[in-house]
Amino acid sequence: MAPLRTRGIVDRRWAAGIVLLAGTLGLTACSSETHKTTTAGGDTTVPAAKVTTYPKNGAEKARPDRGVVVKADGGTLQSVSVTANGRPVEGAFNAQRTEWRSKWALRPGTTYTVTSTAKNSIGTVSRSTSTFRTLKPTAAQTATASLDWILESNRGKTYGVGLPIIVDFNRPVANKKAVERALEVTAEKPVEGAWRWIGDQRVVYRTKTYWPAHQTVKLNAHLAGVRVAKGVYATKDLNRTFRIGAARITKINLKRHRMAVYVDGKKARSVPVSGGNGTTREYTTTSGVHLTMEKGNPVRMTAPGRKKGDPGYYDLLVNYAVRISNTGEYLHQSMGEEYCLGRANCSHGCVRQPRSDAIWFYKTVQPGDVVVITGTKRKLEWNNGWSFWQLPFQTWKKGSALS
């Protein structure tokens, strides 16, 4: 079945904004300090280490995407501290400790203080302090981005092992590499993953294999200061923490008209079902790896491409419906054709269940749970909803700007 609009109670999607502002570009330059020379005994003179900071001391329109660089000439850096409004800036030294670089972009329109020390070969300490300000965008252009998971409406709950991380922008992203470098995903139980761009306004993170169950995952999108496009900078980071719950894998065989739900590897439910009748393409359930995306009780469903009075037209309120694709496929309660359950495929494309099983599935499902359907001639498209698992991981990775 294909949904038109939902009436009734439906879980709302989550969206959190990141404002992107366009502004003029500021030039950066180096600055240096004057240091005294010291002696190493006899008449040998050893110059003090020279510390140079980029952007230069007093800069007013430093480009935030270029970050901070501190270099020591004639010695090694002992310490570097970069702060803004009392908050430290993360960075790292090179192997020789002659250079320090900030890890992420800086915030636009913000004043930074850089304090550093260096030593020359005989231990004489040089100190340097500088202050600069990143450019403040003056143009009125703005853009927003969002994570398109069901997060806010699922706050405090858990997510399935197939969950993707989706970031949407409301305007094209020209500098995809810079944006992708700013996206950091960490997990208690690490597993390989990669970002893939789907057009110019969406980037999706998918793991190579399903997330290991029962763990915490974090997304730190260090977007503030990233030059998204010419003259356009992000001004806010986005940090989210979520929990991966039990590994819920649902397997549906529509040749046998059976569904089995496995929780952490153990069969939790065996259910007689009925899938799409196959009389038309839209009435054929897709075979492939689906993910549960949202749910509603009830959901209004109408016949795709048909109007009232046409053969096969329907307009129904369906109870306990869990969406698994963008083409109107749901798992839901049977609508008066119980005789088909476990025997034949009689639906308009959805997977129907007995009422008690549909209620159980609805109440226990997590966003991102895996639903694998087999037994039909229509293959699920990889970009139909959250069907990203339809692509082999090696193919998936080719969509990264950093591949």
From TrEMBL:
Residues 248-374 form the L,D-TPase catalytic domain. The keyword Membrane does not apply. The active site is at H332, C350. Keywords: Acyltransferase, Cell shape, Cell wall biogenesis/degradation, Peptidoglycan synthesis, Transferase. GO terms for biological process: cell wall organization; peptidoglycan-protein cross-linking; regulation of cell shape. GO terms for cellular component: extracellular region. Pfam families: Big_10, YkuD. It comes from the Bacteria. Pathway: Cell wall biogenesis; peptidoglycan biosynthesis. The keyword Ligase does not apply. GO terms for molecular function: acyltransferase activity; peptidoglycan L,D-transpeptidase activity. This is L,D-TPase catalytic domain-containing protein. It comes from Actinomadura rubrobrunea.
